[in-house]
Design goal:
The complex is a heterotrimer of chains A (about 250), B (about 500) and C (about 220).
Chain A: E1 2-5, H1 9-14, H2 16-28, E2 32-34, H3 44-49, H4 52-65, E3 72-74, H5 77-94, H6 97-106, E4 110-112, H7 113-120, E5 133-136, H8 140-145, H9 151-157, E6 163-165, H10 180-183, H11 185-201, E7 206-209, H12 212-224, E8 230-233, H13 234-239
Parallel strand pairs in A: 1-2, 1-3, 3-4, 5-6, 5-7, 7-8
Helix pairs in contact in A: 4-5, 5-6, 11-12
Chain B: H1 23-31, H2 34-57, H3 61-77, H4 79-92, E1 95-100, H5 103-116, E2 121-124, H6 128-132, H7 135-141, E3 145-148, H8 151-158, H9 175-186, H10 195-212, E4 215-218, E5 222-224, E6 229-234, H11 238-244, E7 248-254, E8 258-259, H12 265-276, E9 284-289, E10 299-305, H13 309-313, H14 329-333, H15 335-340, H16 351-361, H17 379-383, H18 390-406, H19 415-427, H20 430-445, E11 453-454, H21 462-465, E12 470-471, H22 478-489
Parallel strand pairs in B: 1-10, 2-3, 2-4, 4-7, 5-8, 7-10
Antiparallel strand pairs in B: 5-6, 6-9, 11-12
Chain C: H1 2-19, H2 26-34, H3 48-61, E1 65-69, H4 74-85, E2 89-92, E3 106-109, H5 115-120, E4 123-126, E5 130-132, E6 137-140, E7 157-163, E8 167-168, H6 171-177, E9 185-188, E10 193-194, E11 202-203, E12 210-216
Parallel strand pairs in C: 1-12, 2-3, 2-4, 4-7, 5-8, 7-12
Antiparallel strand pairs in C: 5-6, 6-9, 10-11
The chains are: A alpha/beta (about 250), B alpha/beta (about 500), C alpha/beta (about 220).
């Protein structure tokens, strides 16, 4: 099985360790990973702020880049949601028939990481070892747009040594919301405070999720407040073994 | 409770979208108001819990939502037909139907009717539509006193406050604030702050009004085309008072309130109370058709109000906004509303529905900050009984607002606009993207502390760093690591 | 009023432009309407006994007082309820069954009583059209045995007689029972209430504070 990794613009720049973990994890599971160096961004930031034509040009680029990929795996549920939910509207409005066809052919081959592991590989136990107390934050795109459901829990439950603590008000948004975190910074911060209360109340060492966007927001506040908890993308937990423990940066 | 205050201050937010400050600004005083945030959180927690219990027990909840969504879409697709049918049947039953293209027309029509009736007083059932057209101040200015009869509306009217929720408009007010308002404005000594006592005070205050004021104004939850009937959903009974005792009834209804048939209520009534108040059914729902000799008002007027609705109807993605049955489930589920309450939205329609309805009613000339007052979490869509995909409409409206900005000189001074335009250029070629990453490492390197984190950023970055740190950019990007690894393995 | 006629034309033109439909034939519209998919529950599966029990349970949840009786016990049951209420002056709709007009009380039959007179009464007794068990809803069509709307509104105490044969499980079944849509309907689901002050539920704001229901077992 060969997959093409779409790392996402922000992971490439800010969280390369997540990408490294995805590669290590998938190769350990016998998946061949390729990486197309021409990749940049899926267009979500632009689409969500109202810059449709700009988002379209990025979307077109992405579809063309992966037209012949066997499968595309993305460690970011919001980017997958962008592709699944907004690309067809953009192509309807601004694209042509050929592009719409290309997209239609590609979209069934696009996977969020936990979807790929559980649905495509049929793997729940990925041989991970992470002896820490962890709580899982369900980012809104993963929860509602992708309906990831039990998948992340099933994966985490098989990680040896991991003590999973449930999070109260699991389905409440952390307040990141992309450019919302800046355009409505104060409201975003209020939402963050409320979310952090629930996260810190778990007493966990780590808060994990399938999106570094939420984690950047939560982790940024944890660091500012000397909260004694860190954030870590689930890929890094799943890639962690006794021989090669997870990279925990910052 | 503010110690030493002369009387409790209910803030005076501006709910006129043409005048209200943008959402991020309007939210600030609210975020700093612990009492208000506590009141809002408490109220919505109560309703949410009740709603969740009842939805879980309802086996066909999703099927009801689907049916309601289809029924509303069908009514909207044939709106002209159904409104004309309503008009014909209502008129045949003794009612008079008026059509108002906008708020000003609606106000004029209502005043004309009141003048004909020689009315200098009117009792009102709560209707957000009348607040939308700013009816009360207009009537006041023209010598007609409007008395609100809904408990929440009385609290707001007497306390000179503004609604912050479309179902529980005074949810931001607590009992001691209500006590103070009632004691002062109703002239009651030794009034306790027990809700029982406060409600009894309101009941006494209104009893005489109900029995003596001959003209009433209501809104409509539903208009039934097939029969020319109007349905009003309520809990307190003030609605029944207003639509039974007076001589003349005036109903103001948005054109989107029409349902094709009487039986369509079997779907809507199962969804509305569960969504709005977390009850299987609200205490009183009333339906009447024109005029019934010997029972109730003998003169009945309906004003069908457009005021921007037909422009929403015209747009493919936005049309679903008009499915709304004003249950407020969306704002109860909204994590943004939970922190800000309703006033920050600068409109009588707050929350997620307000974020899409208000700017559209204003024909996108005002309230452009509202479509951005959302983190797009989708909780609203999940609970909407008529399945309005609010995030989808928000995105559509953001695109329209951005297209407006593209034509304005202002855009050159908007750092986010510039930033996104530059980002688009950068994302168009991998080489530019990599160059920008390198530049970012250098630029942000200046702000990175020894522990590898950024604590303060200038300009728009300060919006992030005012409450959050940012981990500094790693020296090696993922794609660089990948390239290096490939080289090594060769 | 020409302003009104203009408003009508203006609004309808805007609507027609928005839906891109000119005069649509009624048959076409009706056709589109009838094919709308409805997958919700349209009738219940409870037995008559279970339905009655559910109705009683839901009514009690709303703090309505519920008693049951057999058809032959009805008049006595009504009299007993009136006695235990401690009230004496009652309003009755013009065609309330004579057997329900219990002796020993002052009755005001509603032949267009002025509101002031109704205000002086202490209670009202009526029949109803239907009961919906799922929500404990009593549906009143304001016929001559159910009374004008005002008489179930002003008095503080309302006694309503609901026959088991009138009770349906689900709301769609009530609509099924309406041969024609009625001109006046009041759906009553408990005494008047508000939760406007700190979400604390208070009963009896306007409208009857006390709802008494007699469920008549006419189906056993």
């Amino acid at each position: 099985m060969r997959i093409s990794l779409f790392i996402t613009c922000y992971n490439d720049t800010l969280f390369p360790e997540t990408g490294r973990a995805v590669v290590r994890l998938l190769e350990r599971l016998g998946v061949e990973v390729e990486f197309r160096p021409g990749q940049t961004c899926c267009g979500q930031m632009h689409a969500n702020t109202g810059f449709r034509s700009e988002a379209f040009s990025q979307a077109k680029r992405l579809v063309r880049l992966y037209a012949d990929a066997e499968a595309v795996v993305i460690p970011s549920s919001s980017c997958v949601a962008m592709i699944r939910d907004q690309y067809s509207g953009l192509f309807e409005e601004l694209g042509d028939e050929a592009l719409r066809k290309e997209f239609a052919a590609l979209v069934p081959r696009v996977y969020e990481l936990s979807e790929f592991l559980v649905d495509k590989l049929g793997a729940e136990d990925v041989g991970a070892y992470f002896p820490h107390r962890v709580t899982y934050h369900a980012s809104c795109h993963g929860l509602r747009a992708l309906q990831l459901g039990e998948r992340p829990f099933r994966l985490l439950s098989k990680v040896r040594g991991l003590d999973l603590v449930p999070l109260e008000n699991l389905d409440r948004c952390c307040g990141f919301g992309g450019t919302f975190s800046v355009k409505n910074a104060e409201v975003s911060s209020a939402m963050l405070t409320v979310k952090l209360e629930n996260v810190l109340a778990t007493g966990a060492e780590f808060c994990t999720a399938l999106d570094n966007s939420c984690l950047m927001h939560l982790g940024g506040a944890m660091h500012r407040q000397y909260a004694g908890m860190k954030t870590i993308h689930m890929a890094q937990i799943l890639a962690s073994t006794q021989e090669h423990p997870a990279e925990v940066l910052g | 409770m503010s110690a030493g205050a002369e009387h409790e201050v209910i803030d005076h937010p501006i709910l006129d979208p043409a005048l209200a400050p943008p959402f991020p600004v309007a939210a600030l005083p609210v975020l700093r108001n612990p009492q208000l945030r506590m009141n809002v959180a408490h109220a919505i927690d109560v309703i949410q819990a009740k709603r969740a219990r009842l939805v879980a027990e309802k086996q066909d909840w999703q099927e009801l939502r689907s049916a309601a969504s289809r029924i509303k879409d069908e009514a909207l697709e044939n709106l002209g037909f159904y409104l004309e049918q309503f008009e014909a049947r209502c008129t045949a039953a003794g009612g008079t139907v008026h059509w108002a293209a906008d708020a000003a027309d609606a106000r004029k029509i209502i005043l004309e009717i009141l003048r004909e009736e020689k009315a200098d007083e009117v009792i009102k059932i709560k209707t957000m539509t009348s607040a939308e057209i700013q009816l009360n101040p207009y009537l006041e200015a023209n010598g007609v006193r409007a008395y609100e009869t809904d408990l929440a509306e009385i609290i707001l009217q007497l306390g000179e406050g503004e609604p912050s929720h479309i179902v529980v408009p005074a949810l931001h007010v607590n009992r001691s604030q209500v006590r103070e308002i009632f004691a002062r404005r109703m002239g009651i000594e030794n009034l306790s702050d027990e809700p029982e006592a406060l409600t009894a005070a309101a009941r006494n205050y209104l009893r005489q009004k109900f029995l003596s004021v001959p003209t009433a104004i209501s809104g409509a939850n539903f208009l039934i085309a097939e029969t020319g009937s109007v349905a009003v959903v309520e809990s307190e009974g003030n609605g029944r008072m207003c639509l039974t005792l007076p001589r003349t009834m005036i109903t103001l209804a948005g054109i989107e309130k029409v349902l094709p048939r009487f039986a369509d209520l079997e779907v809507m009534l199962q969804l509305l109370a569960r969504s709005a108040t977390g009850e299987r059914m609200n205490p009183y729902t009333s339906l009447w058709t024109g005029v019934t000799p010997g029972d109730g008002p003998q003169k009945f007027h309906v004003i069908l109000l457009d005021n921007g609705r037909s422009s929403i109807l015209a747009r493919k993605t936005e049309r679903q906004t008009l499915r709304c049955i004003r249950c407020a489930a969306c704002m109860n589920a909204c994590p943004v509303y939970r922190q800000t309450g309703g006033h920050a939205y600068g409109s009588v329609y707050p929350g997620p529905i307000g974020a899409i309805l208000t700017p559209q009613l204003e024909q996108m000339r005002h309230a452009q900050s509202l479509p951005y007052a959302s983190s797009l979490c989708g909780a609203c869509f999940e609970v909407c009984p008529v399945k309005i995909n609010i995030p989808e409409v928000l995105l559509e409206l953001r695109a329209r607002v951005t297209d407006q900005e593209r034509k304005q000189v202002l855009r050159f001074f908007d750092p986010l606009y510039i930033g996104l335009r530059v980002a688009n250029l950068i994302f168009s070629r991998a080489r530019l993207f990599h160059l920008a990453q390198w530049a970012g490492q250098i630029g942000l390197g200046f702000f990175t502390r020894r522990d590898g984190w950024i604590h303060t950023l200038p300009g728009i970055g300060a919006k992030w760093t005012q409450t959050r740190d940012l981990r500094g950019l790693p020296k090696q990007t993922f794609h660089e690591w990948w390239a290096a690894r490939r080289k090594e393995s060769k | 009023m020409s302003a009104v006629a203009d408003g009508r034309k203006l609004v309808l033109n805007c609507i027609r432009a928005a839906t891109r439909s000119s005069s649509v034939a009624a048959e076409q519209v009706a056709g589109a309407y009838t094919v709308l998919a409805r997958e919700y529950v349209s009738h219940g599966s409870m037995s008559a006994e279970a339905r009655l029990e559910r109705m009683a349970e839901r009514l009690r949840e709303y703090d309505a007082e519920v008693v049951e009786c057999l058809p032959e016990e009805l008049s006595a049951a009504i009299a007993a309820q009136l006695r235990s209420s401690g009230r004496h002056i009652f309003v009755a709709p013009p065609r309330l069954p004579a057997a329900w007009i219990a002796a020993g009380f002052e009755w005001r039959i509603d032949h267009n009583l002025p509101p002031g007179e109704i205000e002086k009464a202490e209670g009202v007794v009526t029949a109803c059209f239907c009961g919906v068990a799922e929500s404990g809803t009593i549906v009143v069509h304001h016929s001559a045995a159910e009374g004008r709307r005002v008489i179930t509104l002003l008095p503080e105490w309302h006694l309503c007689v609901v026959r088991a044969s009138q009770i349906v499980e689900t709301l769609p079944e009530y609509f099924d029972r309406c041969k024609q849509p009625p001109a006046l309907v009041t759906w009553i689901s408990g005494p008047s209430a508000t939760a406007d002050i700190e979400m604390t539920r208070i009963k009896g704001v306007h409208g009857p504070r006390f709802l008494q229901v007699i469920l008549v077992r006419d189906e056993c």
